[in-house]
User: Which sequence fits this backbone?
């Protein structure tokens, strides 16, 4: 029979308290504790691309950002997706039993209402799934891979934007203006 040892719990509590004190002393601040990170993420209007994976990505981003529909959006994020599927496990009868699914998302974060670009990025996710001999099981596995890929892309985009917001979002630059051509014939040389 095991006896209750109060000194073990006290040692664990002391260790945790010392670790918390050490982290506080070194200036550690959690990413989402930075002022404005959570509120700015919630103020992003997600414009997901068409299709099943685009819909899933939009849903996962809205969940990740904890989108606030009651207030005005401060940013808009536009996404474009690229999907690829590669056979990886080939049987002797030349039938694939495993696939690699690659989902690439390019995003553009724009300031609202002006629409100037605040940040661009690209996220790529690679994962694998089994393909069964039964057609329904194979389709279900592929759809599960698409959902897992969309969820991981959303998580990575959220992390990129949160770290960008936490480090002080840079102000968008004015669009480059192309100078007009000078009148007259240019000299060829």
Assistant:
């Amino acid at each position: 029979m095991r006896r209750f040892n109060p000194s073990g719990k006290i040692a664990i509590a002391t260790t945790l308290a010392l670790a918390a004190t050490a982290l506080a002393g070194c200036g550690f601040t959690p990413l989402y504790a930075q002022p404005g990170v959570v509120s700015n993420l919630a103020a992003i209007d997600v414009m997901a691309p068409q299709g099943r994976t685009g819909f899933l990505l939009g849903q996962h981003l809205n969940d990740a950002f904890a989108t606030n529909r009651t207030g005005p959006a401060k940013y808009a994020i536009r996404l474009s997706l690229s999907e690829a599927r590669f056979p990886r496990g080939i049987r002797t009868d030349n039938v694939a039993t495993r696939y690699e699914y690659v989902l690439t998302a390019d995003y553009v974060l724009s300031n609202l209402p002006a629409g100037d670009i605040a940040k661009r990025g690209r996220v790529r996710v690679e994962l694998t799934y089994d393909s069964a001999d039964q057609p329904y099981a194979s389709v279900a596995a592929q759809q599960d891979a698409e959902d897992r890929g969309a969820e991981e892309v959303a998580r990575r985009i959220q992390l990129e934007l949160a770290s960008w917001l936490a480090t002080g979002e840079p102000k968008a630059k004015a669009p480059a203006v192309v100078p007009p051509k000078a009148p007259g014939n240019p000299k060829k040389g």
User: Anything to note?
Assistant: Strands lie at 44-47, 75-90, 96-111, 117-130. The first strand starts at residue 44 and ends at 47. The mean pLDDT is 80. The radius of gyration is 25 Å.
